[in-house]
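Subject: F-box domain-containing protein

B.,
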Amino acid sequence: MAEPDTAGILTTLPPEAIRAAHYLVALCRESQPTTLLDLPVELLWLIERQLPDKDVYSLCLTNRYLYHVLNESLCRRGMVNLRALQLSFQRNQKQAFAKAVAALSPLPRAISLDNHTPPLTPLVNNSNVNLIELMTFKGGLLGQQLAHIIEFILRIWRRREESTGAYKWQSLQNCLKWGLSPNYVFEDGMSLMAQAIVKSTMNPYKQYREVEILLALGADTGCLASLPGNDSMLHLACLHHQTKIVQLLLDKGADPNLRDAQNRTPVHRLFDTHENKWREPDNLLDILLADPNVRIDERDGNGRTPLSLGCLAAGRSVNLLTAALKFAKKVVYLPDRVDINSQDNEGKAPLCHAISVREYDMIRLFIAQHGLDPNLGPADEFPLIVAVDFDKLPSLELLLDSKQLDLNQQNSEGETAVLKAIHIGNREAVKLLARAGADPDIKSCEGATARQAALDAGIRVRWRIRPN
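Prediction pasted inline below.
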């Protein structure tokens, strides 16, 4: 930035100051000053006394040297106005406070008066809090004071359920009114809306109102950078089971198919364990499924669809079992939207997961579907051999009701389910499979057959081979 010209500065001074200035300039003619910075310190002090606060602050911003030379004067000028600001604020005197704000408005942020400017925060109360609005959208020192108040409130807001009584002024609404961006992000990456949703389990109605206010002010519903896990606001609302917030976000245009860091959509997050999830009958699933844009058969990073995750979640708690069954009963009848045979990265279909967690109602639901392939699964973990291997007789009985079941499917070692049952001593499974028509003469990779293995094990079986 170009330095102010000496002649231009001098012409703005009163006559007596100009005469004194010319006298001082004459003392340094030999140095031939060409800018204000070339003038003696004494002359700079003289010029400073003739200029208003705003001009002095502006000049000091142009050069650090001027700031150091005039620092004492800057403190002297600012102290009077700062004292007036604090006293008028403490006494709730609106006119005096407004005058002090006007006087301090030119003071730039770059002018460091921290030792002389204690923050206003300790003086704020329910009576004078409305005066802070006079400081909004001010830069410099006033902006620093306001930022200090807002930061203090946000720290309180994050850890406290609600500010009441004498601390009612410590509200998010006040911070937003004073110019805080609705998309403000804390140092740990959490946005205001994300924090409001996380807190919603403590006071659902209050946090719903805060989310509503943030959305009205333009908060981004689809921000994926707000958390380390790249959760969108809809992900969080589903995770914390906030039905009203989910509906509000969808009404405001939130994308129900956004992915987080693990490639999960909000529908996937319905089946994450959370202490408040599914604690009472709800319509959260109905809300998501009713959205015309939602895709309910997307794969996450492990290749699992929401239906597969629901099957796995069903084995973790009774509440999640209820939710998973509710979801499954809705989507299995939507073959155009959901593939009940979808296999994850390990090759496991939803039926495999239901058998592994012993959820018989879920298995029964799948078996009843005409489009189900009951034979899909990894080479060594297809449904029939899993049911035998883990001694899940109810699962085996349900599987045997399927006409599409391949009783003679072999694993990577060439074992059929009945041969596997003989090897592990599961006699009941051997008898069930024999009555169902399993072929006892199929050889494994080692040449063993179920017929011979049963004889060797002393298991008496009446084989009833199912015709091809």
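The chain has 24 helices and no strands.

T.
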